[in-house]
Structures are given as C-alpha cells and as structure tokens.
Specification:
Length: 454
C-alpha cells in the first residue's frame, strides 16, 4: 500500500511538472490576443453586457492572458484535477482505490487526443479536440473548466459516500461555476441534475440531495448567464450571419461541399450524406438502447455517461456556424469524449476485466510504454508550436525595441495550424488587428506577414 502511495505521489508531481512546462511555453492565439489586449479590457469595463454571459470563462481568460504565472498555475491545476477526477471515477467503477494503473489510463485518455492532429485526412479534422481546448487558452477556459466541474459532480453523485453539508455547499458552487462558461454546457447541467433527481425519486422515492444542490447552483448560474442582453438581441435576430443555425440538412451539405469539389457527381454526394445520416442514426439508436437498459437496471453509473453523450450531442447536430469547415467546433465535444471514455471503461469494469488486467505485469508494461510514447508525441508536437511562437514574438519584440518602421510577423506552417486553434491569421483583418493590439504594435507601423505556407 505504501509503495502504491509513493508511486501516486511521483505521478502527481510528474503531472504538475509536465503541464506546468506545457503551459509555460504554450503561445497565445486567436481570441487570446483579443482578451489579453485593450479589447478584453473594454469588454470587462462593460461587464460583458451585449457580448455574452460566459462570465467565469471571460474573467479567467482575461486573467491568464495577462500573467504567465497565473496561466501556468491555473491551467496546471485544472489539468491535474481533470486527470485526478477521471482516475477516481475509474477507481469507483473498478472498486480499485488509488490505482496507479487507473491514473495512467486517465492521463493517457487526455494525451490520446493529440493523435488525430498527427493522423490528418488532408485539412479535414473533425476530431481536433485537443488543439481547440487543452492547447488553446480561450477554449480551455470555456470548455475544459466546466467539463472538470461537471465530472466532479458526476463523481460525487455516483459514489456512496455519506451526505454532508460541506459537500452540499460545494456542489451548489460547483453547479454555479459550471454554468458560467459556455451556453450548451449550462443547459446540460440543468437537464443532467434534474434527470438524476427525477430518476432517484421515481425508483427509490428519495430526493438526491447532491443533485438538488448542483441543480440549485446551476439554476442560479443559468439565470446569471442568460440575464446578459446579448441573448435578447439574439432572439430578435440581431446577430451576424455566421452565428445562425442553418439546420440539420444544411450541416450535411456544408460537410459535403468541403469534402467534394463543386463539379462532383451528385449521386456520390448524396451517398456521402446518406452515410453520415446512417452513422448518426446508428449512434442515437445504440446509445438510446443503452440508456433504456441502464434505466431498467437502475444503474446510475452506467446511465449518466450515456445521457451525457446523447443530450450533449443531439443539439450540436442541428447547428452550423456557416463559416467554418466544421459542423460545429471540435471543442464542443470535449465533455462527450471523456464521458465516452468513462462508458468504455465501465464496460471493462462491469466484466471485472479492468481489475484483472491492472494486476497483469505484461499489461502494465504495455500501458507504461504507450503512456511514454503519448507523452513523447505530445511533447514533440507542441515543441514545434512553442518554438515558432518564441520566434514570432522575439521578431516582433526586436522590431518594436529597435524602432523599425516595418514589423514582420511570422505565419506558422500549416502543419502547426492543425495543433492549435486559430494560431495563424485566418481572418487577416480581425486576427491581425487582435495580434497588433495584444503586442501593442503602433498603428503607424507597416505590417509584413512572413508566410511559411508558400
């Protein structure tokens, strides 16, 4: 037991050091430039009124774009918490407390998100989750933070620990904070907590106090978020074209138009769309069936990840920005991914496979080797991004310090674009202007973009 405890402490320290280094060197990109400049200060001055109600996410990104220390400490803490909570959920599913194997599996499930960035199908990467959440600070505060808070609630509501006032108060604040980062997570928290309350009362004639506290906090958070005037403007249709919902079929056509050239055979395009529709239908049928079985068997631990997968995914299928190549941004699926991991792990734990393989020396060796390779791939992948970020910033800083009339800004190679959301100037006007304000480049300076994509 003492040996296992020592291993865990070493793993905890390693986690903190790894993510500390990762976030120390991670460059800012896209919306980060806006939040870290006078644009963010102006939004804060107006209490984000007319912008959005993501109060917690907005405040956090303003903080971490203005202080490297705050960025490192906060992001490292959240990533450690994400891995720790996942490992605790795995421990609970497998009845294997403080398992080193479960911690490594949890850590690996985070790192494996880097792989789709390396295995690209041209420029189409609908699974680019890591680069738009963990690897991009604006996505981090809006998606990783509430996901961790929801997973904490999931852990408490699926464990049989005794009720306590301290836990109840904590869950009120947990729900409140989880609902002030991004809109569909806010709605999900309300549905998620309410569904558990109804489920527990229907089968056991008891009110789930933990869920009630989280629901109460979520309700307060939702009221605060949607009190922002931006949502009233949206209801009146006073939004830009790129924010409209274009519908389910429109989303399919958006995907098809990206994959196929304009003169493509129409039959081929229709077949492609039908395959997409069939895949979505199979997904829904499979998980709705699993939901039915979980309700019938009165298994909350099996039911909750399935509810999350279905409830969080369905609304996203009906919306499209009309501007991006993705039906929705990959970051929208961050929480669903980890619920899918929990669901799959639960299947192994159900048949006692998880406990058997965790004690197998050969499996442990393979797991450790895989973990080491994932760490290496992640480190090398983001080392390139960090290196280019340092060169870009140093070039700009030198030009400003020396008083050059022309400021050269390096554009990252396309291969690096794939591993961090909006790291280049996708919209030359908007993103370049944000970068200029972030770096405090005077408007009288001539800007020259040095492209690496020729």
């Amino acid at each position: 037991m003492k040996l296992k405890s020592n291993k865990n402490i070493i793993l905890y320290l390693f986690t903190i050091i790894f993510w500390g280094i990762f976030y120390y060197f991670l460059p800012f990109a896209g919306d980060d430039w806006a939040w870290g400049s006078s644009i963010g200060a102006e939004r804060l001055k107006n209490a984000f009124d007319g912008y959005n109600g993501r109060y917690l996410g907005n405040l956090l990104i303003i903080l971490i774009t203005r202080s490297v220390i705050a960025k490192v400490l906060f992001c490292t803490f959240v990533m450690f918490l994400l891995i720790l909570v996942l490992s605790k959920i795995f421990d609970s599913l497998s009845d294997n407390k403080k398992s080193t194997v479960n911690y490594i599996i949890a850590f690996s499930s985070v790192l494996v998100l880097v792989l789709p960035n390396q295995i690209a199908f041209g420029d189409l990467q609908p699974f680019q989750i890591f680069g738009s959440t963990i690897g991009w600070l604006s996505g981090f505060t809006n998606y990783v933070v509430p996901s961790v808070l929801i997973l904490i609630f999931y852990y408490f509501v699926t464990t049989k620990d005794e009720e306590s006032k301290l836990i109840h108060v904590f869950l009120i604040f947990d729900g409140l904070l989880a609902c002030m980062c991004v809109e569909h997570y806010t709605l999900f928290c309300l549905i998620f907590a309410f569904a558990i309350i109804v489920y527990r009362y229907y089968f056991y004639k008891k009110i789930c106090r933990k869920s009630l506290c989280f629901f109460f906090g979520s309700l307060i958070g939702a009221l605060i978020m949607f009190s922002n005037s931006s949502y009233r403007l949206m209801q009146r249709g006073d939004v830009s074209k790129n924010q409209r919902a274009v519908g389910f079929i429109g989303s399919f056509k958006q995907y098809a138009s990206f994959v196929f050239p304009e003169n493509a055979n129409k039959t081929l395009v229709i077949v492609f769309e039908l395959i997409l529709l069939s895949a979505i239908a199979l997904f829904l049928i499979f998980f709705l069936f699993k939901m039915y079985k979980a309700i019938k068997n009165r298994s909350v631990a099996k039911l909750l990840p399935v509810i999350c997968l279905v409830v969080m995914t369905i609304p996203l299928l009906f919306t499209n920005s009309g501007k991006e190549i993705y039906i929705v941004a990959p970051r929208c699926y961050f929480l669903q991914y980890f619920m899918l991991v929990i669901f799959i792990y639960g299947k192994f734990a159900e048949k006692n496979i998880a406990s058997k393989i965790s004690s197998n020396i050969k499996f442990n060796n393979v797991l450790n080797l895989s973990f080491a390779l994932l760490l290496l791939v992640t480190s090398l992948t983001y080392f390139r991004l960090d290196y280019m970020g340092v060169i870009r910033d140093n070039t700009v800083n030198e030009a400003l310090e020396e008083g050059y009339s022309t400021v050269e800004i390096i554009e990252y190679p396309k291969s690096i674009e794939q591993i961090q959301w909006s790291s280049n100037f996708m919209e030359k006007g908007t993103y370049l202007e944000r970068y200029q304000k972030f770096k405090k480049i005077p408007p009288n300076k001539e800007i020259k973009i040095i492209s690496k994509n020729n």
